[in-house]
Amino acid sequence: MKIYNVGLIGAGFMGRTHAWCWNSLPYFYAGRDYKCCLKGICTSSLEAARNAREELGFMRAYADFQTMIDDPGIDIIDIALPNNVHKEALQAAAKAGKVVYCDKPLTGNLEEAIQLEKELKDPDSLGQMALQYRFYPATMRARQLVEADEIGKIISFRAAYLHSGNVAEGKPMHWKDTRAAGGGVLCDMGTHIIDLLTWLCNAPLSRIYALQKTLYANRPSHRDPAVMARQDTDDMTLMAVMLDGGAIGSIEASKIATGCQDELRFEIHGSRGALRFNLMEPNYLDFFSSSDPEAPLGGLSGFKRIHCVQRYESPALFPGSKFSIGWLRGHLHCLYSFISAHHVEQPFQPSIKRGIELEKMIAAVEKSVADNKEGI
Q: Is CATH 3.30.240.20 the classification given to domain 2-133?
């Protein structure tokens, strides 16, 4: 049986998420002719790496990611670092010939993404981006229905990813709230919703008009909460966009949507039908078909709720198709798609090249904000 030795860079929130996924593969997917071994981990310091090794079940702690990447005993590099460190890790992994699983966004910086595009011989084959919202049965089914022309030509859409974590004035900044770390809501959450919407519609952004808002100019520093610091990133980005093909709609990313938890949602309206989804009800996809009769008294017309739940295709077998799904399950199937593609030498989707494309879309949104001139 083939064994893949995984080296994880980062043991914070996303690092722990990825470690859980690697450990969980045997429980959820049957009949695999390969195993994944948590071989190495490195993080901000050797002491922290040793602690993470013990807590998360890795075999060895490394003082730095370069040493771990250069280790011939490591096959796969999983990058779960702050955005501004991604480029160095990607460069090192590519040079060492290691395949990569990289958290989004690719870099949080267009110049660095373009540099990688020039350096990498084949960004499609380097590895996969962790864009897990593509990997729920409900969102995969939505893509199938669009591809099967069940809703016809796409006319319009509304897509949003909403949190409320930055509403409180006294909340200390996170590194994700700093431009130096490749942060901001547009990079953090906008990457997800732009990727999902353009993937579902199978069309890139072609025209953009965007506005941004930062709720408080100054907030407690992420390094020292006793010190006030200027926030140089957005709390909210609102985009009016057109896709290739002419569909128009809105895309929103916000951490100041009071009352929202982790609400990723979309509506897609076509010439013959429509789709809608909300991550707060992740078991269901709503589908409307114009072909359903409206008479008598409404006939059979209206949105129908498809019970997608956990109806993943084989070899997924646990916990069962009818058990309620959750946030971690999308991450797990995203990682499974990566390792299974690598094992059978199939293309990665979404690939590192997709990460570069998303950086260009994010930069186009930022340019629209910068170019906007206020007026009546």
A: no
